[in-house]
Amino acid sequence: MPLPASDKDIDQWLVRLCEGDEQAVIAIYHGYMRSVTAFVRLYVDDVVAIEEIVDDTFLAIFSKPDQFEGRSSFKTWLLGIARNQCHNWLRKARKEPAINARTDDAFGTLVDPTPPILDHLEQQQVRQIVRLCLMRLPEAQRQVLYWVFYEELSVNETAEQVGCAPGTVKSRMFHAKSRMADCVRRRLDGGIA
Q1: Range list of H helices, 66-148
Q2: Which of these, 8, 24, 75, 147, has the minimum number of CB atoms within 10 Å of its CB?
Q3: In terms of pTM, does the model score above 0.70?
Q4: Closest CA to 129 of 106, 150, 151, 97
Q5: Which parts of the chain register pLDDT below 50?
Q6: Start-to-end C-alpha separation, the chain
């Protein structure tokens, strides 16, 4: 199995992908699948839909790899495709609500997965509250949280990824954290968020 692709070597992998190299498909998928999945979870909370959107995102690039023009990093371009796929799915879901849609906890990895039973129930409730509060943030604030906390980028790197000034990133982070804290606090105290 090839090493996962990264933005450093993506040009080589894209050339190989255009030549029909199956190893390039595997390398690109393994290099970016976790980031794309985490990003899609910012928009969609249906497990089946998340998998579908991630697959559709990769199919879009695998079918037309020559569309990447290098005006941004490959990951930024890829996440832009993922965002468009999410918006398309959400638009369709509003028209045709899913029956028995299953959901997954996007923040399951934030809490120890093997707590005692009573603690586990409490932690599930907290994760649900955090997820609800996160989904109530404006898209711009969710994106900044993604880049800073999941991708562990600096403020300047995040500003480059989202296309705004570093001061704007700091402002969005401040407001996102403030809104999250307020929402979580109200939900935990039994109030309405």
Answers
A1: 74-95, 117-135, 139-145
A2: 8
A3: no
A4: 106
A5: 99-113, 117, 193
A6: 47
Q: Which residues pair with 46 in a beta bridge?
A: 103
CATH 1.10.150.170 assigned to 10-95: no
Summarize pLDDT for 4-38 with one digit per residue, the tens: 878 788 888 888 888 888 888 889 999 999 999 99
Strand partners, 103: 46
Torsion of CA 117, 123, 128, 133, to 10 degrees: 170
Q: 108-188: what fold?
A: Arc Repressor Mutant, subunit A (1.10.10)
pLDDT (tens digit, 9 = 90+) per residue, 82-94?
999 998 888 888 8
d(CA 78, CA 68): 9
Tell me the torsion sign for CA atoms 101, 106, 107, 112.
positive
- What's the gap between Cα 151 and its chain centre? 10
